[in-house]
Amino acid sequence: MPKDKIFNRKRRLVENFNFGKETSKVFDDMLHRSVPLYDEMQRMIREITAEFAVSGTNVYDLGCSTGNTFLAVEKGLPPDVTLIGVDSSKEMLAQAQAKFSKDRFSRKVKWLCHDLNKGIPVQNASVVIMNLTLQFIRPLYRQRAIASIASGLNEGGCLILIEKVLSPHSTLNRLFIKFYYEFKKRNGYSRLEISQKREALENVLVPYHFDENRELLLQNGFKGCDIFFRWYNFCGILALK
């Protein structure tokens, strides 16, 4: 697994973070070193997906990146469930396709290169997964995105939403961010890498408070939701159609 060294050298100008060629090459390492309890998140997504997936329907991963989540959930699903991965990065999708070609899955898998800011193509879905994805959709388009997901979900289906969230209390917010950066240091990231990546993400990743996400879900087609995972400023929400 190539190691993430994208921000290990001082840059005169830190450009906005993107999911292109440079990032796709090291993204799996980046995930494991930047996302707390990443493997446990994937395990929880797997068991929730297995509970809600229905034969003859689609399971979507919106912002599927290199396909890790589908690798995690695939074996627990009915054989006639179709997996549909959507991502705006051609390079990420190429990595995902390579993984599935290598393992030669017999299940039907589709990959769609699509900008989620331009709408979300969900149809006949029993499960939709957004693992650290909604936060990268511009706030202007998030209501439309959630409404589109709810519209494409069958009754009884679910949305699995994992996001970085803000605390409504400024002191707690600073504390949680401090603990998160300490986590990244323990995983080998330097202060320079943390600082430059934070700057690169500043205008790209826009987190909401949990209550804002909850209202977004309940006002746009979901009948209930609850937290299934929490680690400081990382939050997993399960929403029911």
How would you portray this structure in words?
This protein is α/β, with parallel strands linked by helices. The protein has one domain: Vaccinia Virus protein VP39 (Rossmann fold), CATH 3.40.50.150. 41% of the residues lie in helices and 22% in strands. It is globular. The mean pLDDT is 95.
Looking at this protein, list some descriptive labels.
eight-stranded mixed beta sheet, 8 helices, 241 residues, alpha/beta, globular, 8 strands, Rossmann fold
Q: Per CATH, what is the topology?
A: Rossmann fold
What's the number of helices?
8
Helix fraction by DSSP (H/I, runs of at least 4): 40-55%
Please give the alpha-carbon distance between the first and last residues.
38 Å
**CATH architecture verdict:** 3-Layer(aba) Sandwich
Overall geometry comes to globular
What's the CATH class label? Alpha Beta
Q: What is the typical, i.e. mean, pLDDT?
A: 95
β content, as a range? 15-25%
Profile the largest sheet: 8 strands, mixed
The string of secondary-structure elements, in order, is: HHEHEHEEHEHHEHEE
User: Tally of extended strands?
Assistant: 8
Rg computed from alpha carbons, rounded to a whole number of angstroms: 17 Å
Unreliable stretches = none
CATH superfamily: Vaccinia Virus protein VP39
Helix/strand structural class: alpha/beta
Q: How many domains would you count in the coordinates?
A: 1
In short:
Strands 1, 2, 3, 4, 5, 6, 7 and 8 form an eight-stranded mixed beta sheet that branches. The chain is an alpha/beta fold. It is 41% helix and 22% strand.
Topology at a glance:
Layout: H1 21-34, H2 38-52, E1 58-62, H3 68-73, E2 82-87, H4 90-103, E3 109-113, E4 125-131, H5 139-152, E5 153-166, H6 170-186, H7 191-201, E6 208-209, H8 210-218, E7 224-231, E8 234-240
Parallel strand pairs: 1-2, 1-4, 2-3, 4-5, 5-6
Antiparallel strand pairs: 5-8, 7-8
